[in-house]
Here is the input.
Amino acid sequence: MEVKKNQDYIVTIEDLSVEGEGIGKISEGELGNENGFPLFIKDTVIGDVAKVRVIKVKKNYGYGRLMEIITPSPNRVKPLCPVARQCGGCTLQCMTYEEQLKFKRRKVENNLRRIGGLKDIEVPMTLGMEKPWRYRNKAQVPFGSDKGGICAGFYAGRTHTIIDSEDCLIAPEINQTIIREIKSFMEEYHVAPYDEERGTGIVRHALIRVGFHTGQILVCLVINADSLPHADKLTERLLKIQGMTSVCLNINKKKTNVILGEKVVNLFGPGYLEDKIGEVTFQISPQSFFQVNPSQTEVLYKKALEFAGLTGQETVWDLYCGIGTISLFLARSAKKVYGVEIIPAAIEDARGNAARNGLDNTEFFVGKAEEVLPEWYEKRDSKEERHADVIVVDPPRKGCDSVLLDTITAMHPDRIVYVSCDSATLARDLKYLTEKVCNEGKEGEYRYQVEKVQPVDMFPWSAHVETVVLLQRKNM
Ligand code: SAH
Here is the structure.
């Protein structure tokens, strides 16, 4: 029997996809197919027996919509958020938090075993949050119109339909007041929201950043114009909110899904925000990357620091360093830290942050890690000069270039600390690093071995997981 769109089936959820969708198979009896036909079904949890409607059919799998839970899984919870099902953000809201941590641990372990070839690796439990709500320090709220009125909130899953909602349970409560003030300003002064289809209207997004340690707030309104009519009135309203430190505009007149444009116009304050991670203070401009979950960032960086095993004597490289967060965190316990990052503005922030914290044992380079490091390496004359004690990498989802991995191993570091936001590319890179036999002269051959792995939950209720890995050099 063929699986058809719009047909209903009863399935038992047996597994979870990497994105956190439940996977259930349409059984043999109904289809005459030996292995069954897998359906990916959002909002379901392993152990659920559910009635699902097929919404999309591909050759070997399909997508289903949950119609009814027939027998709930013991790990199912009622989502706390009233708009959990519509929202494209938190895909795991039907799962107990404990189960999410287990799911993420398993995901990392499976990838390291299957893709990384690390057959016997045991991954410890994901480090989670005590209270996994209101953790995000950054929100990008889309604005649009709905039946003539202004709506602001979030995009429905896989669409650009805006669901009007002021509160988001993973964002600070103050965001509601900010969104309300912006909406009422727009209504009073007839400032139209952006219309994505036609490219008309003005207000596209509100970027809100809150410094969890400092209490500072930055609001940056992304507009489809060169200026905002009655901008002073907006500033006036926002300044009534306690902690408001910077109000600015970001100009984005392109027809694009990219949220921020290049130009920033300051309306009030310094145009950036300050916050702390541990003892280190950071200046963060609207466009710079900054980890969104500050309390778990501290957990992550402490793990990275522990794995780096610094005594104060080491030379350390922090590749993909952003605004220097990990670099400065490590610089307090190292002799010298070099940082490399592709975005020039982030490196400016990094240098400023180093100076602000009196960490003058740091040096930052702008460029691609896979170009900067090999060039630097080529220019050193001796093996001693090329040597680094510890190398930290924290690449974007696509992982590291093999040219970079080759230079890293050639630098003969005692330890490599790999921080990753995508365990599949992490596993691929670990396979490369651990299978490689290195030889850099008189010490003879050596290789790298995975010593420790630690998943950290930076994004509760989503399927993402961050992982820190320690690789140790073994002489052969
Ligand atoms: N370690 C930082 C940033 C990690 S995010 C932190 O924890 O805050 C990854 C960073 O890599 C981003 O800042 C991105 O701009 C940068 N990046 C992306 N591709 C790069 C490349 N090829 N070389 C160097 N940096 C790169």
Remarks:
- Residues 289, 291, 320-322, 325-326, 340-343, 346, 368-370, 394, 396 surround S-adenosyl-L-homocysteine (CB under 6 Å).
- The chain has three domains: 8-71, 139-277, 290-475.
- The radius of gyration is 25 Å.
- The chain is about 25% helix and 30% strand.
